[in-house]
Amino acid sequence: MKSDKVLDAKGLACPMPIVKTKKAINELESGQILEILATDKGAKNDLTAWAKSGGHELMDSSEENGVYTFFIKKG
Amino acid sequence: MPVNPMTAKEVTKKVINKEAFFILDVRNEGDFKDWKIEGENFDYLNIPYFELLDGVEEILEQIPTDKEVLVVCAKEGSSVMVAEMLSEAGRTVTYLEGGMKSWSEYLEPIKVGDLTDGGELYQFVRIGKGCLSYMVVSNGEAAIIDSTRMTDVYLDFAKNIGASITHVFDTHLHADHISGGRKIAEATGATYWLPPKDATEVTFEYQALENGNDVQIGNTKINIHAIYSPGHTIGSTSFVIDEKYLLSGDILFIDSIGRPDLAGMAEDWVGDLRESLYKRYKELSAELVVLPAHFMIIEELNKDGSISKKLGTLFDENHGLNIEDEDEFRKLVTENLPPQPNAYQEIRETNMGKISPDNDKQREMEIGPNRCAVR
Q1: Whole-angstrom Cα distance, residue B155 to residue B120?
Q2: What ipTM does the predicted assembly reach?
Q3: Residues of A acting as catalytic residues
Q4: Helix and strand tally (H, E) in chain A?
Q5: Could you tell me if residue B218 is left (phi over 0), alpha (psi between -120 and 50 degrees) or otherwise beta?
Q6: Which of B29, B30, B81 sits opposite A15 (nearest CB)?
Q7: How far is CA B86 from CA B4, B6, B96, in A?
Q8: Across the interface, do A14 and B29 touch by the CB < 8 Å criterion?
Q9: pLDDT, tens digit, for every residue of A29-70?
């Protein structure tokens, strides 16, 4: 999947992945896609819930070797 | 203004003393609904931390100023952030050190009684998860029953009271938490006892715990007498200690009874469970003090925080011991059961020695309440 911006939040503990995601999303236009890389296990549930409550769309997520990748489309 | 941490031990004290307390839980809603810090006089507000990134003004009204406020999250980080925001808004709050992770792992040792010739019996209350383990001490020797994976707690405790651990028991193969029994036995050279019927697939050496086994702790008369009481698992074994205490494992709890389904054999084991509870236990003295391996609800705590009741009282008051009709009993323990404990299959395999997850993984597998009972 193609993204407009990549946020590397690997190695960051909660709440930083979401704090940074929020900042990065603010810099995008509606409809653009942010790709997030994170290693915090809690990030998946929290990003999903956060995207939903903020009106954004979690388009895809995957995990490989302990690194989670998320694609969020700004609402 | 810096905010101060509150430890799981301090929160435990508030639970035991039934203090009024306010918890702002900033985990997501699903996690909060599934499992939280329980206290009889605790009030709660659950707002995920990611809804508060722009500020806490909107929730200030809902946070009381007339009682202590604790901010809680999964691991600590988010609760520190929210606590700092509240502090900047002029509120005095604390956060839970180590988050729910440390709440799940905290053990409160409580003495439940003196034994003949100067021995003592301690209950280790895992307040966050509802698991209970025990230490029998006599003449410089100690036995541990149903230990959790936080083995240092028992090793340090024994060291502090000058006892060496000589025997370690598990009443059954646990499905809700990872046993520390084998690790303690390896660290101390103690004998590790398991019921052989639960241990058919284990990958390590153990001593077979069977009906009628008597084990001496110290050189006094304190004996641990094993009673085969299948039903939660096929090997489940209870102990009578010092002819006064009945360690009932996951067969009988204070306000509930064990569930027979966690090894996938509910229908087969209903009859065993009924026989253990309605026949074998009936034959024991009503004066025995029942010490189970779990509690389910915080109301089960005695004034000192321990969990125990006389067997006779349980025969009067515990619903699970008062179902005359066998079909009704079968229905209770096989239908409409609560959800199974988190990762219970992996936990069973870990306790058999088949898999060896690292510490982080073990912690994650154990998240949530124990769910070993039916009411």
Answers
A1: 16
A2: 0.91
A3: 14
A4: 2, 4
A5: left
A6: B81
A7: 12, 16, 15
A8: no
A9: 999 999 999 999 888 889 999 999 889 999 999 999 999 999
pLDDT at B62 > cutoff 90:
yes
The position carrying tokens 């199974």 is: B340
Q: Which of A14, A18, A53 sits opposite B75 (nearest CB)?
A: A14
Tell me if residue B137 falls in helix, strand or coil. strand
Does B360 share its domain with B254? Answer: yes
Cα torsion through B88, B40, B335, B177, rounded to 10: 70
Contact predicate B351/B345, CB 8 Å: no
Number of compact structural domains in chain B? 2
| Same-domain pairing of B175 and B307 | yes
Instruction: Give the tokens for residue B217.
Output: 């702790």
User: A59 phi and psi, to 5 degrees?
Assistant: -85, -35
- Does A22 touch chain B if contact means CB atoms closer than 8 Å? yes
Q: Is the pLDDT of residue B49 over 80?
A: yes
Question: Cβ contact (<8 Å) for B49 and A18?
Answer: yes
- What residues make up the domain containing B74? 4-102
pLDDT in tens, B284-340: 999 999 999 999 999 999 999 999 999 999 999 999 999 999 999 999 999 878 888
Tokens representing B42?
A: 């605790």
